[in-house]
UniProtKB/TrEMBL annotation:
It holds the Pfam family Toprim_2. GO terms for cellular component: cytoplasm. GO terms for biological process: DNA replication, synthesis of primer. Residues 1-58 form the Toprim domain. This is Toprim domain-containing protein. InterPro entries: DnaG_primase, TOPRIM_dom. Residues 167-212 are annotated as: Disordered. It comes from the Eukaryota. Gene3D superfamilies: 3.40.1360.10.
């Protein structure tokens, strides 16, 4: 399944809501294509303010067209289609689920591989605020419902993604490539945090200092 950034941008700009819902084949090849798009293409759409969701087909259906052909009536087909579209997940949530399935929290190599994939993907995002948002979302996946661990991971993911982003910007500069004005993160703790972070900020700060 071939996807290009240009095609996705055209689709997003053609949509009044600037939302794209991906519904690829439910087999290994289709799911692999979506996963690859999450790692390479979708992060680059954030700057264009294009929202991407991933539709999950019901178990047993291989192709989106099966929603239509397996229905006994036009009304049933339409209902099935609307249900799949309504339950489509934001691409970050879908990708987080895929990463979570392969993560062995007791295996350092598995954990390192997952964080490397995530931070490499985050490094494709040019806006620091978007990288912050992604760090928060993926820290929840890797944190395994441990609030203090989530906070530590959020900062670590953001730091590693920033390092990779700035390294690539330096490479562009050395090659003479054009690149956007450099945007850097303020390294101080954010002033406005979700309630879950405000509650445990003291524990987070202590854990962060001890880890250093």
């Amino acid at each position: 399944t071939a996807l290009s950034l240009e095609t996705l941008k055209e689709l997003g700009h053609a949509s009044r809501s600037r939302r794209i819902t991906m519904a690829l084949d439910n087999d290994a090849a289709g799911q692999s294509a979506v996963k690859k798009a999450c790692e390479v293409l979708f992060p680059k759409l954030l700057a264009a303010q294009i929202d991407v969701h991933v539709a999950c087909l019901p178990e047993g259906l291989k192709d989106p067209s099966d929603l239509i052909t397996s229905a006994t009536s036009e009304e049933e087909a339409l209902k099935s289609f609307r249900t799949v579209m309504a339950t489509a997940k934001p691409w970050t949530e879908w990708y987080g689920d895929q990463v979570g399935k392969t993560l062995d929290p007791q295996n350092p190599t598995s954990f390192s591989r997952c964080t490397d994939l995530i931070t490499s993907m985050m490094a494709l995002v040019s806006a620091p605020t978007d990288r912050t948002h992604l760090a928060y979302q993926f820290a929840k996946v890797l944190g395994m419902n441990n609030v203090n661990r989530q906070m530590q991971l959020e900062r670590d993911l953001l730091t590693q993604a920033d390092l990779k982003f700035n390294k690539e910007e330096r490479h562009k500069r050395s090659r003479g490539d054009s690149f956007p004005a450099r945007e850097t993160h303020a390294r101080s703790l954010p002033q406005s945090l979700p309630p879950i972070q405000q509650k445990d900020m003291s524990a987070y700060s202590k854990g962060w200092q001890e880890s250093r």
